[in-house]
Amino acid sequence: MFKRSFAASKDRAGKAKKISKRSFRDDATKQRLRDALNNQTPETSPSIGGASPKLNSAIVTIAVGKDQRLFAAHEDVLSRSPWLASACREQFFSSPGQRRISLPDELPETFSAVLEYLYKGDYYPRLLLDKKRNTWSLEDDSAAAGNLAASTSPLTDAGAAKFTGFNDSATLYHPGVGDYLLRDTVIYCTALRLGLADLQRLALRKQGLQTGIDVATILRSARYAYANTPASDSRLRAHYLALIIRSRKTFKRSGTMQMEMERGDTQLFFDLFVAMCNHIDDVVEIG
Question: Which residue intervals are annotated with compositional bias (Basic and acidic residues) in the record (predicted)?
Answer without folding.
Answer: 23-35
